[in-house]
């Protein structure tokens, strides 16, 4: 029987209802904090699939799919800031006016890794975990750029990060130096970050649907069949991320609350066409992030970026974003990949506030604060509400 | 008689364009070489913007030399040991999207008896 490789998401803490207790004494109790959901990769036949779907510990099954970086679209001219000590992303989110800096908050970045030796990361406890087999470090630069926007330190009096007070960062290298990864790597990365106590998980990555179609055509499938097969896999992967996000949310009501933020994707090209948020950001329970651009000083008029996919939950600066680069330097990049760490950083400020207020982070309050405090009053008149969701995220000011 | 100098900068000027979305199985067009003028300035050059108008740059006191990249985007220039900042020209602007910090472009070091490699990549017209 023909078999294929599948990713299986399991929650072994579920009671197996298929086995009646039948008067057996329960002799052991599982502690609440364990076991965590697990990811398995197996070769399955259609019969195996049917059996697994009946297993109550199975949360989801999906074929492994290629994931990619949401790469920056272009490096455009950075506008000189009127306030030379801070980037426009820090200013318009109100991070520079906030009494919070992310202190006491753990942020995870699932990306191409990090240049941990960069001057801007000195003083931050960086815990790296490689899921690609390449080893630690960042051969691409994308992960270093995203991490810098969240918790890069103030360098020479210049602040370019939202949460420079973050002292503990989890860097899950789920994408290789060429920017590729898989469902399995991403899922393992998320579960690792949860186990390590991440309050926020930032993912500037997306599914490569056209890449999968192309690969299937290369394997000999007619284009129509390849598209159908890819769509089938794509849908299964979206469901898998839906289940995972549900699990993260449920876990947060008992253990530590965590929030996943992800890039909405750069596949749109306004005014020609707009595409909807791409997976995994489209999964229920993941905060999807679109990108804004500024039309000039003093950043009073913001608009949705040409490339930003429509239908995100929130938006943040994503054009002409200055941040760290591998090798010790800095680059200006554009993309929803750059907007996502702005939201992760703002989430870190809200998490710090919640931790100080109540000693914990409740996932309902957490996402309610982040999304509920977003605003649209700085957006240029005539914007399409579906392009910006709740609006531009804002830092807590008191 | 033309003899190759012993040290300097050896580089390529490249431009990425089209769909560059990376993936496990996706294919991308390779960056294209650019034949253009490469401007070399001595020392560190202040700047926050990848673009620098030629009209301003060519009066700069640290402008050291210019060289033209070939159709493969390659260029080579012999230079005394020291620190340099290298830009590629696009129309009426110089372009360098690499910074050493908030107020300076990234520079390169030329050391004795060595060729320092430089890649000047412009991704302005690429979609990812």
Describe the structure.
The complex is a heterodimer of chains A (398) and B (128). With 398 residues, chain A is an alpha/beta fold. Chain A is 29% helix and 20% strand. In chain A, strands 5, 6, 7, 9, 11, 12, 13 and 14 form an 8-stranded mixed beta sheet that branches. A 3-stranded antiparallel beta sheet of chain A has the order 2-1-3, with helices on both faces. In chain A, strand 12 (286-294) and strand 13 (302-304) form a beta hairpin. Chain A starts with a strand and ends in a 10-residue tail after the last helix. In chain B, strand 7 (82-90) and strand 8 (93-95) form a beta hairpin. Helix content of chain B is 3%, strand content 48%. In chain B, strands 3, 4, 5, 7, 8 and 9 form a 6-stranded antiparallel beta sheet that branches. Chains A and B meet through strand 4, strand 8, helix 5 and strand 16 of A and strand 10 of B.
Q: What is the β-strand count of chain A?
A: 16
Mean pLDDT of chain B: 88
Portion of residues in beta strands of chain A equals 15-25%
Q: Please identify the structural class of chain B as seen in this structure.
A: mainly beta
Query: How far apart, in Å, are the first and last alpha carbons of chain B?
Result: 47 Å
Order of helices and strands of chain B: EEEEHEEEEEE
Basic shape of chain B: globular
Helix/strand order of chain A, N-terminal first: EEHEEHEEHEEHEEHHEEEEEEHHH
């Amino acid at each position: 029987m023909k078999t294929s490789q599948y990713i299986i998401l399991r929650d072994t803490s579920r009671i197996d209802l298929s086995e009646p207790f039948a008067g057996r004494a329960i002799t052991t109790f599982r502690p609440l904090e364990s076991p965590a959901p697990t990811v398995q990769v197996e070769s399955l036949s259609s019969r195996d699939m049917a059996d697994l779907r009946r297993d109550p510990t199975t949360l989801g099954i999906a074929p492994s799919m290629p994931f990619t970086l949401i790469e920056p679209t272009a490096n455009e001219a950075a506008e000189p800031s009127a306030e030379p000590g801070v980037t426009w992303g820090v200013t318009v989110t109100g991070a520079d006016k906030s009494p919070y800096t992310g202190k006491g908050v753990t942020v995870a970045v699932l990306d191409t890794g990090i240049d941990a030796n960069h001057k801007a990361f000195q003083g931050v406890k960086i815990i790296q975990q490689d899921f690609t087999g390449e080893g630690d470090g960042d051969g691409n630069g994308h992960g270093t750029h995203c991490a810098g926007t969240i918790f890069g330190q103030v360098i020479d009096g210049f602040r370019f990060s939202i949460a420079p007070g973050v002292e503990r960062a989890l860097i899950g290298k789920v994408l290789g130096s060429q920017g590729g990864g898989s469902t399995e790597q991403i899922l393992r990365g998320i579960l690792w970050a949860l186990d390590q106590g991440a309050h926020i998980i930032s993912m500037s990555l997306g599914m490569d649907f056209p890449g999968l179609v192309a690969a299937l055509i290369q394997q000999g499938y007619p284009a129509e069949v390849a598209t159908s097969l890819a769509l089938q896999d794509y849908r299964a992967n979206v469901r898998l991320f839906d289940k995972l996000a549900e699990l993260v949310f449920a876990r947060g009501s008992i253990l530590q609350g965590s929030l996943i933020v992800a890039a909405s994707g750069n596949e749109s090209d306004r005014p020609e066409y707009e595409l909807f948020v791409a997976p995994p950001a489209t999964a229920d329970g993941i905060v999807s992030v679109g990108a804004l651009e500024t039309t000039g000083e003093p950043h009073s008029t913001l608009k949705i970026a040409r490339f930003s996919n429509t239908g995100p939950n929130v938006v943040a600066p994503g054009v002409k974003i200055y941040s760290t680069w591998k090798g010790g330097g800095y680059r200006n990049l554009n993309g929803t990949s750059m907007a996502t760490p702005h939201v992760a950083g703002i989430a870190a400020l809200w998490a710090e506030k919640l931790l100080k207020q109540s000693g914990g982070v409740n996932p309902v309050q957490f996402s309610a604060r982040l999304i509920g405090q977003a605003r649209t009053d700085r957006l240029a008149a005539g914007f399409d509400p579906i392009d910006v969701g709740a609006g531009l995220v804002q830092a807590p000011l008191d | 008689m033309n003899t190759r100098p012993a040290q300097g900068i050896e580089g390529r000027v490249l431009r990425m364009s089209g769909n560059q979305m990376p993936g496990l199985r996706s294919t991308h067009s390779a960056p294209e070489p650019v034949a253009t003028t490469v401007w070399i300035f001595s020392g560190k050059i202040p700047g926050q913007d990848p673009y620098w108008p030629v009209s301003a740059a060519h009066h700069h006191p640290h402008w050291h030399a210019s060289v033209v990249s070939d159709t493969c985007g390659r260029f080579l220039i012999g230079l005394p040991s020291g620190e340099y900042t290298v830009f590629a020209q696009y129309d009426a602007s110089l372009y360098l999207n690499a910074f050493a910090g908030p107020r300076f472009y990234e520079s390169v070091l030329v050391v004795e008896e060595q060729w320092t490699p430089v890649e000047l990549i412009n991704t302005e017209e690429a979609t990812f």
